[in-house]
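Pasting two entries for a bug report.
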Amino acid sequence: MLEQFPESPFEMKRERIIEDLVGMNVFKVDGRQLYELTLYELMKTYTEEPEAE
């Protein structure tokens, strides 16, 4: 059986932001999947105001 290591606060924050973005129907940023982005890129996307269409 594999032992589960507790996630770091860094990883927990990153996962939370990804979950929130998916909840807002954001699945890709600049053609890249959310899991491919750094925490900085995720936070930048998460805190940006929606663009007017």
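Entry 2 (this is the one that rendered wrong in the viewer):
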Amino acid sequence: MLKRYQLKSDFRGFIKGSEFYLIAESEYIGIKEFVLRTKDLSIRMIISEREMEKYFFPLK
């Protein structure tokens, strides 16, 4: 099951409340990156750990 996240505030042209799926997470030399896709899977976005913490929260 894919993890779902929602935007806390506007980010990169997406409005607050937009939902995303977490597709992948990776870590290289202590730097984490996350790959998210929009709910309709049409747009992919790669973000940093800092951006993930600042702009997104998990949905249950």
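Dev reply: Rendering is fixed now. As a check, the viewer should reflect this: The CA atoms of residues 5 and 31 lie 20 Å apart.
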